[in-house]
Specification:
Blueprint (H helix, E strand, L loop, with lengths): L3 H4 L14 E8 L1 H6 L10 H7 L20 E11 L12 H14 L3 E4 L2 H8 L6 E7 L2 E5 L8 H7 L1 H12 L8
Parallel strand pairs: 1-2, 1-3, 3-5
Antiparallel strand pairs: 4-5
Length: about 180
């Protein structure tokens, strides 16, 4: 999606198209993900095992299999598309108004059922306010917003008591319309 010339400078390409059930959005690709050219590629990241554990994919995918996600109504993006690294080390403005507006434009253009931020930090940046886990009252067009605990190994202290938010999103998404990804 988008202008192919501008997409070339993206650390990881967007995996967004009309008809998706959930688009997962992080802040920026981590250094391991950028080096491997695949989303959530750190070996200790829980993203791929969580998708499978809560029934969003029929098998556990490897990070390099990310392009298969639309088969199951899932997509991927990040707020900061042109940089990688840990949130606290990103350049000033990488998660700012312009990056959030670009994300919003992509979501309005493709209308997934859900935009699920894969960390409180990502969701709070786009919402422009403090927020907790779960569904948010705001919408981007018709798209519902959900904040999830980070599956990153750097957020492991938070995982055990909060992973149920992933299960709740999966259950909610199964209760909505079936995903029909369009080209």
């Amino acid at each position: 999606m988008g202008d192919p010339a501008s997409d070339r400078s993206h650390v990881l390409p967007d995996l967004i198209k009309p008809g998706l059930r959930i688009v997962f959005c992080g802040t920026a690709a981590g250094n391991v993900s950028a080096a491997r050219g695949a989303y959530y590629a750190h070996p200790q990241n829980r993203f791929w095992s969580t998708l499978h554990a809560f029934g969003l994919t029929p098998r556990q995918l490897k990070p390099e299999d990310y392009s298969e996600l639309p088969r199951w109504g899932l997509g991927l993006t990040d707020i900061a598309k042109h940089v990688s690294g840990m949130d606290r080390k990103l350049p000033s403005g990488a998660l700012g108004r312009e990056a959030c507006a670009a994300l919003e434009a992509k979501i309005i253009a493709t209308e997934p059922e859900w935009l699920a931020f894969t960390s409180l930090n990502a969701g709070r940046h786009c919402l422009g306010r403090a927020a907790g886990f779960g569904e948010q009252p705001e919408r981007i067009g018709q798209t519902r917003l959900w904040l999830l605990p980070s599956p990153s190994p750097t957020a492991g202290w938070n995982w055990e008591r909060n992973q149920h938010w992933w299960r709740m999103l999966a259950e909610e998404a199964r209760c909505t319309r079936p995903a029909v990804a369009r080209s």
